[in-house]
């Protein structure tokens, strides 16, 4: 098998991740964020697939992601480097928009996804888990109300 076809999940596969376009980071970050949310819901909230989907949607929607991002900003949870990635993604011109979110909510969500993409591509799994745990804390507060 050709070497460029091999993906190593323990080591970074892409050099200079911080120099990637912010929307590229958000592109992969969206998937990583989604799979982490799905796994969390499957582990902690068993139920029918439709119920699982509704729960996951309440974590991964642009509206929810923007609220989580606002909390991160208010509580200064992100590192300086993560803030740079977030700002680049939030301010990037994007021709798409979420169906059920405002432009600002979509921009905040894109910034959050870029941070997830950045952490994942750098294989900083400890920090990725730490950031996601803040999201889950906020999510669990909302479902207990």
Helix tally? Answer: 6
The value of Rg in angstroms is 15 Å
What can be said about the biggest beta sheet?
none
What amount of the residues lies in strands? under 5%
CA distance, first residue to last residue? 53 Å
Total number of strands: 0
Give the overall form. Answer: globular
How does this structure look, described?
By secondary structure, the chain is mainly α. Helix content is 68%, strand content 0%. The chain is built from six helices and no strands.
Which structural traits does this protein have?
single chain, 145 residues, 68% helix, mainly alpha, 6 helices, 0% strand
Topology:
Layout: H1 22-44, H2 49-60, H3 62-74, H4 80-91, H5 103-121, H6 125-143
Helix pairs in contact: 1-2, 1-4, 1-5, 3-5, 4-5
Short description:
The protein is built from 6 helices and no strands.
């Amino acid at each position: 098998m050709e070497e460029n076809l091999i993906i190593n999940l323990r080591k970074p596969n892409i050099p200079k991740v911080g120099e990637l376009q912010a929307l590229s980071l958000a592109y992969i970050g969206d998937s990583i964020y989604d799979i982490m949310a799905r796994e969390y819901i499957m582990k902690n909230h068993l139920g029918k697939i439709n119920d699982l989907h509704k729960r996951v949607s309440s974590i991964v929607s642009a509206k929810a992601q923007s609220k989580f991002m606002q909390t991160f900003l208010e509580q200064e949870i992100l590192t300086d480097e993560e803030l740079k990635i977030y700002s680049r993604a939030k301010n990037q011109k994007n021709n798409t928009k979420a169906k059920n979110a405002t432009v600002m909510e979509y921009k905040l969500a894109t910034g959050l996804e870029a941070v997830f993409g950045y952490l994942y591509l750098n294989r900083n799994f400890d920090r990725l888990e730490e950031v996601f745990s803040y999201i889950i804390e906020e999510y669990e507060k909302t479902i207990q109300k």
